[in-house]
Write a sequence for this structure.
């Protein structure tokens, strides 16, 4: 039931996105994102990520998406972020950078990511290595926080 409602809301968001001249665009976008958050469906994390765009002039709407995907407990949030990490690696944006910096700055999230990386696929581990290296190139301030993540991503699961 929740998946059907979630899919309907995502379709509504896509339709709304095609009509930014709608006088209620901002309010409708926020309302739909809020409704998606209330579903508490982990699938919403990856579905909402597609709406994060560096080209958006509506930063408040982008932050609404970030805050909505962060409502989940750390285990679920990190699990879903790791699942979509290959996509984020290939579509690295300012918003992907922000998401991972926020994860790195949270001790609980960072530790959870390290824990889950141990059992992740090689595709996910490679994506996370690439993302951490991109963050390190952007700012050396995160070297101490990305080190343990890079180590966990480099461990082979044989």
């Amino acid at each position: 039931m929740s998946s059907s409602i979630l899919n309907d809301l995502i379709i509504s968001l896509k339709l709304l996105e095609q009509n930014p001249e709608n006088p209620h665009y901002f309010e409708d976008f926020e309302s739909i994102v809020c409704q998606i958050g209330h579903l508490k469906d982990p699938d919403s994390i990856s579905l909402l990520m597609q709406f994060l765009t560096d080209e958006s002039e509506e930063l408040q709407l982008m932050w609404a998406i970030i805050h909505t995907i962060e409502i989940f407990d750390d285990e679920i949030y990190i699990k879903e972020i790791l699942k979509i990490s290959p996509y984020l690696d290939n579509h690295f944006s300012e918003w992907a950078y922000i998401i991972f910096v926020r994860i790195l700055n949270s001790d609980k999230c960072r530790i959870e990511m390290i824990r889950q990386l141990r059992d992740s696929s090689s595709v996910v581990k490679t994506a996370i290595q690439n993302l951490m290296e991109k963050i390190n190139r952007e700012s050396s301030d995160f070297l101490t926080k990305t080190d343990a993540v890079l180590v966990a991503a480099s461990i082979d699961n044989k």
In short: The radius of gyration is 16 Å. The chain has a mean pLDDT of 93. Residues 122-138 form the longest helix (17 residues). Residues 85 and 127 are 6 Å apart (CA to CA).
